[in-house]
Amino acid sequence: MDIFQEAKNLINNSQNIYIFSSEEREESITSALALFYTLKDLNKNVNLTLEKVPSRLKFLIPSLDHITYPKNLSISIPKASAEISQIRYEKNEDNLKFYLTVDKGNIKKSDVSFCFTELKLDLIITVGLKDLGEIKNSNSFNNAVLSDLTILNIDNQKENLNFGRINLLKDNESLSELTFNFIKSISENLVKKEVATILLAGIIIASDNFKSDNTSPQLLEASASLIKKGGNHQEIISNLCKN
To answer: What Å distances lie between residue 60 and 47, 109, 128, 154, CA to CA?
Structure first.
């Protein structure tokens, strides 16, 4: 079976989806944003981790209210480390503090783990990550939870460790091209004006506005297709240069 079809089937069979992108790569952020809006159009329950967005990319997000986050945080402490008899909290304008009364044992920072429990996740999509390090270092999932989840790994780095159940990897094209082709494989109608502008911005960033050596005929064809679908080249250049 074609790898795009396998990835498409994985999304079709998933409802609760979490997207992780590399915050070190702007093209990873734009590709993740494009997938986020695409999955929203498919009526999926989708969350996207974006703790920080580069200022020059904020024009691609109409409002941070459009980005949803898990709401329920679970805090775990192994019973073998300490016996806790009381829990109380204190909340003010600046902080929320929890106070634990420990009867036996000691609690170290390394004993405390966090994970979000809002949804029973069906799928994690990683975009532009060569390994799982960035997820494991986040507060979103502990390693035990992560090991049980299905992962769709989308990347264009040769160093990628093939850590997904399905690995959608192409090191001979930009991450934006790969994401564009994947979205088209789900449905050509999903590449709307908003998504086209986001993906075109990713291509412009990856190719230094078509001046870099990696500007291939395929990349130019993808750019032309995105402009035809409403991708606003002038708006992108204006915002990228301004910032």
So the answer is: 17, 38, 18, 21
* Domain with 134 in it: 3-70+116-242
Q: 216 and 177 share a domain?
A: yes
Same structural domain, 31 and 59 = yes
**Could you tell me if 56 and 159 lie in one domain?**
yes
What is the C-alpha to C-alpha distance for residues 194 and 66, in angstroms, rounded to an integer? 13
Report the alpha-carbon distance of residue 25 to residue 48 in Å, rounded: 15
Give per-residue pLDDT as tens, 15-63. Answer: 999 899 988 899 999 999 999 999 999 999 888 877 778 889 989 986 5
Q: 66 and 15: one domain? A: yes
pTM here is 0.76
Report pLDDT digits (tens) over 115-166: 655 557 899 999 999 998 877 555 555 554 566 789 999 999 999 999 999 9
Number of domains composing the chain = 2
Beta-bridge mates of residue 98: 89
Q: What share of the chain is helix, strand, coil (3-state, %, to 5)?
A: 40, 20, 40
Q: Within 10 Å of residue 179's Cβ, how many Cβ atoms?
A: 29
